[in-house]
Amino acid sequence: MKIATYNVNGINGRLPVLLRWLHETQPDIVCLQELKAPQEKFPLQAIEEAGYYAIWHGQKSWNGVAVLSKDPQMKEIQRGLAGDDEDLQSRYLEVFVHKLLICCLYLPNGNPAPGPKFDYKLKWFARLQQQAKLLLDKQLPAILMGDFNVMPTDLDVYKPERWVDDALFRPETRAAFHELVNQGWTDAIRTLYPHEKIYTFWDYFRNAYGRDAGLRIDHFLLSPALKDRLKTGGVDRHVRGWEKTSDHAPVWITLSE
């Protein structure tokens, strides 16, 4: 089973890129982030014509997450995280499909840091930790996946010394990620490639993709029930080189049945 995550950076503007990639790679399950589309503007017909069913949580102009699957037996479990009734940002969606709990997330960027946006990022991270702990307590076959907006280690960022004050790399952000993983989750891509430079994002500016000045900020965290089912994984980095593409590349793993 092939499972992928992709920050599309605007699903309608990048729809030709998304459809081309879906046709080329045929993943079974896909999590999308940064839809930048209200609920009624999700391109469902095009997605269905590509062979996928969809559950999505849209938001005008910003944010938005979706889960696509070839299996019509997909059930929404939860949208949004508990702990803040005033948080209206569309950043979290849980779906049960293929006997897996797929938790699609788009963690806040947090810049500029310090400041209110960084405070929101850390509070959202704490709420994610609480939800993740509940899932582990239930011993569910779950995957936390998506754009975490965090580079966990120096290996995950081009020239780490340039990022020390950035919200994606500040000690508080990395500590929150490691606390989450240490609950019992497995960082799938880093497990497969423990010592290799792997990037999932390249900025549009300063020829970052051409210079391979990237970041690894899109992650899969597997619950203990899935750890031994992890087989392969990678980044479809060539997609980042396509015309009118996202600044992220799709990331994928395969699990044994």
TrEMBL record:
> Mind telling me which residues the site (Transition state stabilizer) is annotated on?
149
Site (Important for catalytic activity) at 218
Q: Which cofactor does it need?
A: Mg(2+); Mn(2+)
Q: Name one Pfam family in it.
A: Exo_endo_phos
InterPro entries (alphabetical): AP_endonuc_1, AP_endonuclease_F1_BS, Endo/exonu/phosph_ase_sf, Endo/exonuclease/phosphatase, ExoIII-like
Could you tell me which SUPFAM superfamilies the record lists for this protein? Answer: DNase I-like
Q: Which Gene3D superfamilies match?
A: Endonuclease/exonuclease/phosphatase (3.60.10.10)
Q: Which GO terms describe its molecular function?
A: DNA binding; double-stranded DNA 3'-5' DNA exonuclease activity; endonuclease activity; metal ion binding
Record note on cofactor: Probably binds two magnesium or manganese ions per subunit.
Q: Which residues form the Endonuclease/exonuclease/phosphatase domain?
A: 4-248
Record flagged with keyword Magnesium: yes
Binding-site residues for Mg(2+), renumbered to this chain: 7, 34, 147, 149, 247-248
Which residues are annotated as site, described as Interaction with DNA substrate?
248
- Broadest EC class assigned to this enzyme: hydrolase
Q: Which family does it belong to?
A: Belongs to the DNA repair enzymes AP/ExoA family.
Instruction: Tell me the NCBIfam families matching this sequence.
Output: exoDNase_III (TIGR00195), xth (TIGR00633)
What is the name listed in the Swiss-Prot or TrEMBL entry for this protein? Answer: Exodeoxyribonuclease III
Q: Which organism is it from?
A: Pedobacter chitinilyticus
